[in-house]
């Protein structure tokens, strides 16, 4: 997880630390030039409070923060010519501009996500999927939308994939897990308390865990056997909608599905077509392929 996201989360921050975090987010380029005493003066706090904050977000101190945050801001500056993932359109934009911007945003998100994928990790995930008696999906809110599409695809090729939409039900699912299950846990921040509780239960059950989460260090990644990173340009709260993160989740899960599908291409294709034909209620003559 990048520094900006950790500051936005304000996890276990005191009121003074929250004030510093919000000031940094609002004045990033200025802050990295300031000494710790100047930042303390601007935020009406103390150097000791600033140091405590930097350590809470996993850094060694203020100098470490300035170096790392400056590099993070430079990386974001390179992306300034790209569509803003948080505000891809303005109130002045025409419908045509909105259509174009969202199309560009989708392409950019997939390109960023593809660049983060590692073929070796994908092969490990597929190997675990083939070995698993059952695959269980875990997530909250937006991540469940992508998980639901993945579950639907996998079910159509005959692989048992379970997903529950309620937090309590997901806790029960984790409690009933076993070493021959595979857990795919989807979380943008990787810091949601319920998600961490689930993976702690899963580890106690010796269930392999695949985490699909943001760049950088987070609690979820520390419990995972395999980590798949998503495009992490999106802010947690200050945005119109989770356009980018959902696209990134969906792309990763589509890639995982496709790689798994390819391992038994003919068999999976036959099962998928058979499933679709059995579940389709249209008259039989309408289901024939055009080339038949």
TrEMBL record:
Keyword match Transcription regulation: yes
Highest classification ranks of the organism: Bacteria, Bacillati, Bacillota, Erysipelotrichia, Erysipelotrichales
Keyword terms of this UniProt record: DNA-binding, Transcription, Transcription regulation
Domain HTH rpiR-type: start-end pairs: 1-76
Record carries keyword NADP: no
Domain SIS: 125-266
Pfam families associated with the record: HTH_6, SIS
PROSITE patterns (UniProt xref): HTH_RPIR (PS51071), SIS (PS51464)
Protein name per Swiss-Prot or TrEMBL: MurR/RpiR family transcriptional regulator
Top-level taxon: Bacteria
GO biological process, one term: carbohydrate derivative metabolic process
GO molecular function terms noted in the UniProt entry: carbohydrate derivative binding; DNA binding; DNA-binding transcription factor activity
